[in-house]
What does this fold into?
Amino acid sequence: MAAITRPRGAERVLATDRFATEIRLARLNILIAFIALALGGLMGVLQILQYNGIDLYRFIKPILPGGYYQGLTLHGVLNVLVFTTFYIIGFLTLITAKAFDKPLVHKGLGWFTFWLMLGGLLMTALPILLNNATVLFTFYPPLKADGFFYLGLTLVVVGTYFLLLNQALTYRVWRKENPKAKIPLPAFMAIVTMSMWVIATIGIAAEMLFLLIPWSFGWVEGTDVLLARTLFWFTGHPIVYFWLLPAYISWYTMIPKQAGGKLFSEPMARVSFVLFLVLSIPIGIHHQYTDPGISAIWKLVHFIFTVGVFFPSLLTFFNVVASLEHAGRSRGGKGWLAWIFALPWKSATFTAQVFAMILFAFGGAGGVINASYNLNLVVHNTAWISGHFHLTVGSAVALSFMGMGYWLVPYLSGRRLFSNFLGLAASWCWLIGMILFSHFMHMLGLLGVPRRSMLGGAPYFNESTYAGVAEWRLLLPVAMVGGLVMFVSAILFYTNMVLTITRGQPEPNQQIPFAEKISGPEDVPAVLDRFWPWVVGAIMLIAINYGPTLYYLISTSRLNIPGLRPW
Amino acid sequence: MMKNSSKLVGYIFEFAWILPSVAIPVAVITAVIITAFAVGIRVPDIAGRIDPVAINNVAPFNEPGVRELAPGRYEATLIAQTFLFTPNEIEIPAGSDVTFVLTSRDVIHGFKIVGTSVNMMAVPGQISKMTAHFPEPGEYLILCHEYCGSGHHVMYGKIIVK
It folds into this structure.
């Protein structure tokens, strides 16, 4: 922590900076995020080695007594819950203030958010490290973790609510000062993201407060497993958009500038964001196609709405690629596609994020397959899903967040990026490693390999007479090579980041790369500058799509399933 | 003037992109609905609740195993628990339709028959049901594909089609 607040020079500059609080909050949040990603990623390397018969867990038994499954819990919790949430809260705190050109009105609230989240994180971490919460990041009951695991996660989520409050208070003041202006695009997007997230967390909040916390602390005897699972996925699907939308903010409002062009269309960007607000949540049952006790008709309805979310994703694809084309042509690129070569492929931050987009195109297509009702029967809970997840949160989100790190960490530390070349090398390694890893995980899934299973020790894999296992043996080593190439990428990335904050040349007065627009705020209709109509629309759609299922599950609910700790 | 004409080109491009952006989702929805309702590839539906404490006394789970319902039609009742299925091995003749009726005694388990479309969760307190057709003789793996504890990876069963 000391390292990132040095040098004294930059710190002295901060004292006079209007945005000193936001910068300090962003530094701390993003530092925690990247530490989480490093530890969580390391666990992933152990997993793919284990699948190939190389068991390194034996050597770390004293610190990881739960072995593979405890490591898997860390991999999931650290990467998709801690890394994402802390990075996003840090990034959106900074972006909201900078876009409004106005520090968040309530500094104390900003610090309260941070300390509440950090307290929750430590409270969750302790039971996991003691092997008292080896329940994976989905923590489905009746697997019963230590109560503090659930309480800590709840505090992290509650902490994030105060960023939305701070954004709303800041917006109100800004609106009084700017009655006629359109909300700056990054601020609009940041507030839409947080609004969607807060509505989405109703599910997990209810699961924690009414089911898991009273049950894990022993105040009630049993729980309702299916109801808990349904509430989990109420939040569990939109959480992926909570991870993705901040990457989209970078793709829409910064990448065009970093590419040397302008955003193609601000109105279209806003359409896609408000559609994410409305459509992200009422589709969570598409994670439960194989569950009993939920009507197949509502599963079908959630499928149809899920495919609806494909629409704003395709709008984003078009808008971002059109912006890139504009940039390519502005840089002298010609032809139907040859403009691509005119883009700044020598910039690490640009290249990393465009690679994230390319990988996400495949992740998105796979996502449509996962969400496609009966087609899901082929892939549900197989290695296909792990492959998909690594293209989406592991690439679209994580590679974007690392790519943004190449300007964000220098910006926050007041130092120049140590090495653009290392950044480029890391980005290429991630792209190549991820293509190998995810492609072969998808294939393994189609062959029936289950996800989240300690394959290296599985009798059906090692001793079974089942003939199909021979194919698994051929493909798993390729996935391992992919994993190891990503490991190299991570080493290059972290070396670069540590050297940037310790050895980088001091460089004060860096700017956030906000892009101009070809079609800008002057073309934005008033309804795309408001929040309430979309929030009300989201809540109504949630009531329609979730109301009957939740009513049925709650009215037939019996809290009769005791907890178990089978690890 | 310059600005207006470039905006018009922009609108044409937007429209040209929006059309397939609507057409692709509509095509996906249509294709899936046809396979679900005309071809009959369904996902699990509501099949009732059961008190896990009473599993041993309630039909059909009091006698897990395979029952012949009609010529070529079977019902296989299974109980999932840490870390095995009861029964762990099922034999059926080739060409039969088998309805799998499943619940869990303890935590959530998975139930995937590799190479078929049978893929469902075994949730304590709930009954799961799916049907599959087994045309050819052979050996099929039943995998638990939901983390259920430290022995999750040893939990599997077999279907022998004769």
Observations:
- Chain A touches chain B through 73 residues (CB under 8 Å).
- The mean pLDDT of chain A is 95.
- The longest strand of chain A covers residues 263-265.
- Residues 247 and 397 of chain A are 6 Å apart (CA to CA).
